[in-house]
Specification:
It is built from one helix and six strands. The chain has about 90 residues and is mainly β. Strands 1, 2, 3, 4, 5 and 6 form a six-stranded antiparallel sheet that branches. The chain is globular and about 40 Å long.
């Protein structure tokens, strides 16, 4: 989880109905809203911006690498930190 000033990036796996998505979520380094679960559960935010993304169709096919994706939270079925994050 590299630090960027008072922010950090956390590598996260997401599964939607059609894709496996692995990307970096930017979170505060500590304190308020610093956990992945906080970002996912924020009711006033409908989308999660992700960077350095790997997008793989669940039905099979090539993994696509993208620099930036905005993931609609309503499509997330499963989410967890890839590199052993706290939430």
């Amino acid at each position: 989880m590299p630090l960027t000033g008072k922010r950090r990036r956390e590598r996260v796996f997401f599964e939607t109905d059609r894709h496996a998505v692995v990307g970096d979520v930017t979170l505060p380094a500590e304190g308020y809203q610093a956990r992945l679960s906080d970002a996912i559960n924020r009711g006033e935010v409908a989308f999660l911006p992700l960077t350095d993304v790997e997008l793989t169709p669940l039905a099979g096919g090539e993994t696509e690498r993208l620099g930036f994706v905005v993931l609609a939270k309503r499509h997330i079925r499963l989410a967890y930190p890839v590199d052993g994050g706290s939430d």
